[in-house]
C-alpha cells in the first residue's frame, strides 16, 4: 500500500492536471474550438505529422471524433491532411503555417497568465519547481515505458 506521502503527491499531481486542463479549456473557448483541438495543435508542434488513428490515441478519443476534430481544424486552416504516398489508405495530419501562428498566440497567452500566477514566487523557487517536475516526469515516463514493454 502506498505511503500517505505518495498518496498526497498523487492527489496533488491530479489536481495540477485538472488545473492545467481547465486553463486549456479557457483558451479553447476563446478560439471557439474544443480543448482537444488546442492539445492537438500543441502536439503537432513536436511532430511533423500524425496518423489520424494516432491523433485519436493521443487525445483518448475515437477515430470518428478525431476525424471530426481534424475537420474543424482544417476549416480554420490550422492543420492539413496529407495522404501517405506508400499506402493511400493512411492519412496524416500536419500543422499549417496558420496553425503555428495560432499556437504561438496561445503560448503568448499562457506566458502572460503564467507571469500573473507566479508573480509572487521567487525565481529560485520556480527553478526548484521546474527541476522537481522534470524529475517526476522522467520517473513517470520510465514507468510508462516499462508498462508498454509488458504489453
From TrEMBL:
MF annotations from Gene Ontology: DNA binding; DNA-binding transcription factor activity
Keyword Transferase: no
InterPro entries, A to Z: HTH_MarR-typ, WH-like_DNA-bd_sf, WH_DNA-bd_sf
Keyword DNA-binding assigned: yes
Keywords recorded for this protein, A-Z: DNA-binding, Transcription, Transcription regulation
Every HTH marR-type domain range: 6-138
Designated name of the protein: MarR family transcriptional regulator
Originating organism: Paenibacillus validus
Amino acid at each position: 500500500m502506498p505511503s500517505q506521502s505518495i498518496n498526497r503527491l498523487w492527489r496533488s499531481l491530479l489536481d495540477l492536471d485538472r488545473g492545467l486542463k481547465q486553463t486549456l479549456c479557457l483558451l479553447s473557448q476563446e478560439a471557439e474550438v474544443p480543448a482537444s483541438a488546442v492539445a492537438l495543435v500543441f502536439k503537432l508542434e513536436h511532430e511533423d505529422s500524425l496518423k489520424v488513428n494516432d491523433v485519436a490515441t493521443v487525445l483518448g478519443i475515437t477515430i470518428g471524433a478525431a476525424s471530426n476534430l481534424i475537420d474543424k481544424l482544417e476549416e480554420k486552416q490550422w492543420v492539413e491532411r496529407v495522404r501517405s504516398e506508400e499506402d493511400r489508405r493512411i492519412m496524416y495530419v500536419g500543422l499549417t503555417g496558420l496553425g503555428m501562428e495560432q499556437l504561438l498566440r496561445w503560448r503568448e497567452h499562457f506566458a502572460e497568465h503564467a507571469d500573473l500566477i507566479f508573480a509572487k514566487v521567487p525565481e529560485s523557487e520556480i527553478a526548484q519547481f521546474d527541476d522537481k517536475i522534470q524529475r517526476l516526469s522522467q520517473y513517470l515516463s520510465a514507468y510508462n515505458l516499462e508498462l508498454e514493454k509488458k504489453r
